[in-house]
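Record format v2
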Amino acid sequence: MIRPTTVAVTSALVAAVVIAVLAGQHRAGAGENVEVKLCDNHTTTTVPGDQPVTRENGEKIAKALMDQWLRANPDSKAWMEEERSKHSIVNPADNSGLVGRGQGATYGQISGDDVATWREETLKLVVDGSTVFHSGDRLGSTIAVSCDMCHPDAANTHPETYPKFQPQLGRVALLRDMINWCIEHPVRGKTLSADDPNMRALEAYITAQRKGAALDYGRR
Amino acid sequence: MRRRAAFKSIETRHHEERDELFRQLHNLDRRTFVKVSLAAAAAVTARGLAHPFSFMPIDVAYGATEPAQGFRIAYVSDAHLYERTINERFVRQLLRAVDDVNGLDPQPDFVLFGGDLAQLGAADELALGAQILKNVKAPVRMMVGEHDWYLDMGEKWRELFGQPTYSFDHKGVHFVVLNSVIEKDFWTERGMTPEQRMHTVAGLDNGIQSRFTVGDEQRAWLQKDLATVPKTTPLIVFSHSPLYKYYRNWNFWTDDADQVQAILKPFNKVTVVHGHTHQLLTNRIGNINFHGMLSTAWPWPYAPQGLPPLTIQMNRPDPFNPADGLGNGEVRVHPDGLVDKVYNLWNRDPIQISSTYMSSGGKKDVPAKPNLVSF
């Protein structure tokens, strides 16, 4: 008999698998198998219910699930690496100095996994922004123009100077207002709403590329 | 009844005055030159404009003491045409440049097209460009850019315009045109299609591509071509990329620039005019003067590092003004073979980088400095 157990797992969250398998084992009788399901609610693997609960076994299960998922989604990792091989993208701040710190309160200490997750998730948005920035199609350009044609490596975009008054717009502009202005005019596409995934990604990339520039709002 | 004079805006009057002044400048003897200079200065002062450089005529090859042996070349560069149905704006901007050079009086001896006629090297883009350039009244000399080349490795370009590497003599000056955009094969290993290869090269900040070179073959050709040219003969070299190392990441760069410069070094008067950088760009290495060309499609920002110290930057282009930072220009060759480089920036006053500015190491005849520098 197989009992289903759903597991929220990324390759960084091996501990979750161990705990979940542990939970599963309590419900599985001897000789029964446990089905472990990935958080995509689709990928599964089966483990013996009486398998000892160790870190090693947990890692094996996580790896089996992730390998399976990667085989089914071959481009999942590659897109970030591919984009980064094409375009130089500034890395986010290094938080590795925080590992082991914390106030010993509710959430415990900051782990290496925490730091890795912050970095990975932040970069994902920034790298996605780079692909939008460099693609007339993703920007919705009707004349095959993309941002990088005037702003290689996001040069001359100056995110650190916003907000500032733009007489041509007749109001104070935020970075996203200028992005939208560019999308509408030189790019000739449709403007994006402030929470559009492409707008968020563009803001992330443009800001990332100016890392280290002092904030100087209003500067012309 | 009295007829009311037609209203002319301040911009219209400004441009009329400016055009008139530059028209007059070309055929001046010394006495008239002084007159025009004073008139211009007076006009500027009378209006209380503290803008000493914008209107100041510069006495060049047209002095009364020498017969005017100097001559003029016009240039148009970096049009980056898509097919007309995809993007009409770049087409219109190239047409504007063609109108500009056709309006020059007297006409230039020839017009250089500085490369990147097409955006993605497509046969239709190149054919459209060739068709537009047929409207140029003066003879046209063609140079190739990377956007023309990497779809079919220059096949269509050569069919339309001939070999990309050649030389010729004109009024005592030896001209050389190079294909400086040769990249080491990065596409075979990656299994790229010709379209993918072209798209990769078309991205200025795309780091997968290789760096530009002139290459062994052309350097050998150049050496041979120059072997019979006396060292006192003025030399003008056209290359698409700058023949020096400015900023590697954007291929504002030629990887074997040092070797090419070594071949040019023995000559007394060498000028290199290049495209690709879409900006006012000035450099001097030894006795070699380097000048950039403006684009008709879009301006590039200045690179974050490596800007040659002689460069007077152009003001940051105004994004609200679609033609700002674009234009065309002229190369005015003096009787002595040195050149003044004119940047005809659309919607701005022209900027001239004179030969005296170059030879004085930037001390004399300094052009107007920008007030919106890049940061």
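Chain B touches chain A at residues 82, 86-89, 119, 200, 203-208, 249-250, 298-301, 303-304, 316-317, 319-320, 322, 372, 374-375 (CB under 8 Å).
The two ends of chain B are 58 Å apart (CA to CA).
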